[in-house]
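Reminder to self: tokens first, then the designed residues, so the page reads top to bottom the way the pipeline ran.
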């Protein structure tokens, strides 16, 4: 994200920054969703084995 300050075209730098932020939020969201699903599956498997 810090690379955006090196662009001589400020509009391009801002577009790059927005793209970086969007990708970061997508990765964080997907990681959170994965953990929620993983915990749910583990809980269901544990309840089946009892």
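Designed residues (50 positions):
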């Amino acid at each position: 994200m810090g690379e955006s300050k090196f662009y001589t075209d400020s509009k391009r730098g801002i577009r790059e920054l927005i793209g970086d932020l969007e990708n970061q939020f997508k990765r964080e969201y997907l990681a959170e969703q994965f953990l929620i699903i993983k915990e749910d599956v583990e809980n269901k498997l544990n309840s089946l084995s009892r």
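The radius of gyration is 19 Å.
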